[in-house]
Write a structure and sequence with these properties.
The protein is mainly α. It is built from 10 helices and 6 strands; from the N terminus they run αααααβαααβββββαα. The chain has a two-stranded antiparallel sheet with strand order 1-2. A two-stranded antiparallel ribbon has the order 3-4. The chain starts with a helix and ends with a helix.
């Protein structure tokens, strides 16, 4: 257990830019320091000047209410081990860092188990179909039943999708890459070695002078979601003072088309 906890704290330290994170630390350094929830009233005042900005502020208020309700629903024992500030930090870390998709559950989950079975059956069913059909030409009349058997893994995968197999996972180092919506990155779970794998395409490399940065896609994200949960917008520089950055983000958000 000590080893597991040590790994968790090291990972959290990585999320918080190398801060000396301790179990009792509060508040934790933010994983998304420029997300809207950290703005001061003065910084938010720019957004209050338009209906678009007011809707975003209402969305942030609603999110805070929902988080508080989730925390209040915990029992007394859970609350004694975790303050609301720590709970809020954890919610922010998941929203700004976790990946959600059809990865195939590692443990449990009906959809994930179906995916693992399908991944094992697919090569076996294809080989069996080919051997049987090639060795006996008279099997033509059984082509349809054999084809159904061979395609069964695909059907299991579709059934897994229908079960709503949308796992969320935190992937150290991978989640440190910056977002580029057009990046042709792919994250997949490989049941053969029980690990997640990241594949980068040519669109993932962004040149910055003589250097290149490897970016990944967080998926299609609206500007409101990027500003609320991540604290950045596409194409908006993140240099300068905190006030400069947040003013730049607010103006860019208001001036962009929906």
């Amino acid at each position: 257990m000590h080893i597991i906890c040590t790994c968790i704290y090291r990972y959290c330290s990585l999320l918080t830019r190398g801060a000396n994170l301790q179990p009792s630390s509060t508040p934790y350094p933010s994983t998304a320091p420029d997300s809207l929830r950290h703005w001061t009233p003065e910084q938010k005042s720019i957004l209050e000047k338009s209906e678009k900005g007011k809707k975003l502020l209402d969305l942030e208020t609603k999110q805070q209410i929902e988080w508080k309700q989730k925390y209040n629903s915990l029992d007394d024992r859970q609350k004694s081990n975790m303050s609301y500030e720590q709970f809020e930090w954890a919610m922010e870390a998941v929203l700004s860092r976790a990946f959600r998709g059809d990865f195939g559950a590692l443990d449990g989950g009906e959809g994930g188990n179906l995916r693992k079975i399908a991944s094992l059956l697919l090569p076996l069913s294809a080989i069996a179909f080919g051997i049987v059909y090639a060795s006996d030409p008279s099997m033509d009349k059984y082509f349809l039943p054999l084809a159904i058997v061979a395609a069964s893994p695909v059907g299991l995968t579709m059934l897994a999708d229908a079960k709503g197999s949308k796992e969320a996972c935190l992937l150290p180092l991978i989640d440190s890459a910056n977002h580029l919506q057009e990046a042709d990155s792919v994250i997949e779970y490989n049941p053969a070695n029980n690990s997640y794998e990241l594949s980068l395409g040519s669109k993932c490399l962004v040149k910055e002078g003589e250097r290149a940065q490897a970016c990944i896609s967080y998926g299609i994200r609206k500007d409101s979601e990027l500003l609320l949960n991540y604290g950045f917008l596409r194409g908006v520089p993140m240099d300068g003072t905190t006030d400069d950055i947040r003013q730049r983000l607010a103006l860019a958000f208001l001036n962009r088309n929906p």
